[in-house]
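Task card 7
Instruction: Convert sequence to structure tokens.
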Amino acid sequence: MTGPAIRVWDPMVRVFHWGLVVSFALAWLTAESWEDLHHFAGYAAAALIGFRLVWGLAGPRYARFGQFVRRPSEVIGYLRAVARGREPRYLGHNPAGGAMIMMLILVMALTALTGWMYTTDTFWGADWVEETHEAAATAMLGLVALHVAGVVLASLRHKENLALAMLTGRKRPPGPADVA
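Output:
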């Protein structure tokens, strides 16, 4: 598995990823202290999610949902392989990573939607909206922790810095046992 690094993550996927990191972090940190920035960060996250949904259908190969969204049985099989220490390296997102992306998108969309709803006259003061927003934001934090743990585990197992790959867009070329 030698040779020059190859481009996997296009610039738009990388901007989306790091933009969502920043917008969620800002929204989390300003939830109780800086309402205008909290709202701006939430709207930015919503816009990023909207973009990602389009890019997941129209973007390049490794950005497309069809490339990394797998059946639940495949995700479970991959997780079993991880538990045995025998999971293959994927050039794009592995099945667990693909499931995580979809969960992050769904929960971030729910967080943004309920945040927006709470600013409308119809839902202002509705306890269930505020509680759902807070629960979704807390779930998002848990998903982020699991995502980071998965990235660290895959990076160690496959001797590849996945965080750096999400910055540069490049990974080492696939070997014979890898899934391209």
